[in-house]
Amino acid sequence: MESSKHKWMPYVWLLPSILLIGIFVVFPILIVFRLSFSEISKAGVVGGFVGFQNYIDAVNLPAFKTVMKNTFWWVLSVVGLSTLLGFIIALVLNQKFRGRKIARSILIFPWATSLVIQASVWNYIIKYEYGNLNNVLLNLGIIRSPINWRVSYQVEFIWECGVGIFVTIPFVAFCVLSGLQSIDESLYESATVDGAGFWSKLWYITIPLVRPSLSVSTVLNIIYVFNSFPIIFTMTKGAPANKTDTMVTYLYMLSFYDRKKGPANALSVIGFLILCLCAGVYMMTVMRKEDEG
Amino acid sequence: MKKINRISLVLLAAGLLLACLVMALPLYSFQANVYTKKSSNTFVGDEKYQEVRAEVEAAAQEYRDQGMEVEISETVTERVNSKGETTSLVAFSIGQTFRKSIWSFAGASLPASNVLRLMLICMVLAVLFAILGLSGGTMETAPLHLPKKNRIFRTLSGVFLLADMVLVPVFVLMNNVTFWRKIDLYNNELITDGKEEFFAKLDSFLFGGGMGENIDSAVKNLSCHHSPLVWVLLLCFFIALTAVIRMRSGEAKHPVLRGLLYVFVIVVCVVTIYPYYVMFVTAFRTNAETLDMYFLHMAPTKWVWSNLKDIVSRGVPRFLLNSLIVAGGATLLALLCGIPAAFAMARMNFKGKKFFLGFVIMSQMFSPVVLLIGISQLMNTIHLNDTLFGLVCVNAAFNQAFAIWLLRGTFVAISPEMEQAAKIDGCSTMRSLISILLPMAAPGIVTTLIFVFINAWNEYTISTVLISTANNRPITVGITQFSSFNMIEWQYLFAASLLATIPVVILFMMIEKHLTSGLTSGGVKG
């Protein structure tokens, strides 16, 4: 269809987009890479090449182990539980019932709200002295005296994971819902005729058919959750002593509070490589679907 | 009469009758002091003790003669005084135990009474609509062949039964507040407002107004317990609900599962709305009330609308405007760059198409957070640090992937025939894109537009790093000025949050339907 003299035309159409991504996404990546191998003074003056010194410094930081462990548990618990709960909620919301539209609109609230606002609200809810949760539970007669919801940093971290799950569920639920809606009703009908029960229909029809949506949403979630910054930053700021930090909040503290730009850049690259790994898995999933469809 | 209709009617009647019966049981038990007698210099067993004991026994007998259930208890306090002698004080008290049924609340003017009345109204309405749904000989009709009018009536009946289920925990809550927390706070003088009025209400409900002046001491050690049987009410209403579901949709829909589905959905919705409720009510409380651990009111005692006025004077409109500029600009830029790219991806064949696709997806992977240092360095170099335009660019760039993705999905779904015809007529590619494809793709474009807008509006991390001037802050960063380390002004924080949240939630609800299809056709599936 395209004549040969217009061979370069498609690239002109792509150019604005390439420029935008190139300058504001690819360029920072290069900067971070270069800085991670350079000596950087506290004031931010970039010195010469130092090899892997920044990486060695980063790994030897006292909080490094805790932060990596936290990041692992943060991603695992938030992605795992929100996928499970989101899947169940999607199954329920896929039923036909009156008020389904309202329920869906309500479920979308956490997705549409800024994370920093969600985190602030939960921060208030779980306060010991005046938090709303204690008041509601007291009024309901479930507890007889206020509970300190933030006794230790471990508990605070669990709360942060809880808020993470809360805000991630809508995304999973809507991804699964979109998968569920593309399933042909007649499959279930014929399965019912064949005498299949609820569980076997779930196991042999629903799960295999929503697996593509589910796997894409899971990989995207891993990336989003890994990158999630505002919840932890708002609720604990990583306190005490980086014990509730994940990699991205630690990175921020390291670079903009402690002024340890060198190790911070090294950590950035490590995080970037972990994301690349996830991105690779994601690409493979999407591309395979592309070939199929 | 159809068997299924008969069974349903019986079930509905049984459920509601059972509920009425449960309400008539003495489920609430109270214990209060009706009589106290202190006797100093008295040792257990001595002459004085016997004397006072007999006196108390007589008093108790008097109460028993009136048909009250009373119990005598005594406490002994022994002390060694300054002279080294042991003194002892014996205090007798007569505690009355009495039970009340849920029905008895109906006549009182307590908060729970209003809930009970509402519950009863809902029950009556549920029955009424169930009966209306039976009109016109539909008892002979199978549920699936009901006329529309009858189905609507039966649905309404179910709605009121669900409302009844929600009201049960509210009733328990109100009583806990009244008989435990509020009395506790009055007794410890943590609150004083309206004490007399409140105690008078208690007197008339608990003692039929007989306590008069003594009500203060009578409720001093008042304890209130409700039997777990209260929760059976939930089951009663649930039975009635399944009956209505059966009448409406027949056996085909598994009435019990169906009922559980409604309950599950309600629970999920309540939990989801909870933080928004907290945000809303806290935004209109006074500062003192936000920090008050004794507050008893689910709503502010006084709605402080001036909170909104206060945040206006503290720069919130400016922050909102900045957010609008950033989000609007980012959306515009993302679409201006994204539409041509998506068009090329959808309509043209060229070398490196797959490579570009990969490039775009990869860029989606990296949220700006990991690249924070790189971005701030870059912005310093090109002097876009601390400018709104810098934020516009970064937001647009990081939303490029999703924009192209959604738009390409939309364009692919539209047949290229019209454009080809236009081309034969001598239209340029650009013209056919603008005048033919874009109008047809409008729904998809609007979805993309709103999605990018919301993402940019809610962005926080990059803005904290890039923006240092107070006047350039978008709202997400601006609200953090209300929460410093030593003092958090919750009411302002949430009032500003409310303003920042409402518009985007409405926008998101508008594209909700397209979002589901967009995620498959464009965003995720590719």
Short précis:
The complex is a heterodimer of chains A (293) and B (526). Helix content of chain A is 73%, strand content 2%. With 293 residues, chain A is an all-alpha fold.
How is this structure best described in words?
- The complex is a heterodimer of chains A (293) and B (526).
- The model of chain A has no long low-confidence stretch (mean pLDDT 85).
- Chain A has a two-stranded antiparallel ribbon with strand order 1-2.
- In chain A, 73% of the residues lie in helices and 2% in strands.
- Chain A has 13 helices and 2 strands.
- Chain A has one domain: MetI-like (MetI-like fold, Orthogonal Bundle), CATH 1.10.3720.10.
- In chain B, strands 2-3-1-4 form a 4-stranded antiparallel sheet.
- Chain B is flat, with a radius of gyration of 35 Å.
- The two termini of chain B are 55 Å apart.
- Residues 521-526 of chain B have low confidence and may be disordered.
- Classes of the chains: A mainly alpha (293), B alpha+beta (526).
- Chains A and B meet through α1, α3, α4, α5 and α6 of A and α4, α8, α11, α12 and α13 of B.
List the helices and strands and how they pair.
The complex is a heterodimer of chains A (293) and B (526).
Chain A: H1 9-36, E1 38-40, E2 46-49, H2 53-60, H3 64-93, H4 100-107, H5 109-112, H6 115-125, H7 132-140, H8 153-181, H9 185-193, H10 198-226, H11 230-235, H12 247-257, H13 261-292
Helix pairs in contact in A: 1-13, 2-13, 3-8, 3-10, 8-10, 10-13, 12-13
Chain B: H1 3-24, E1 28-40, H2 47-65, E2 69-80, E3 86-100, H3 111-132, H4 148-187, H5 195-206, H6 215-218, E4 223-226, H7 232-249, H8 255-283, H9 287-290, H10 306-313, H11 316-347, H12 353-365, H13 372-381, H14 388-413, H15 417-424, H16 429-440, H17 442-458, H18 461-466, H19 475-478, H20 490-524
Antiparallel strand pairs in B: 1-3, 1-4, 2-3
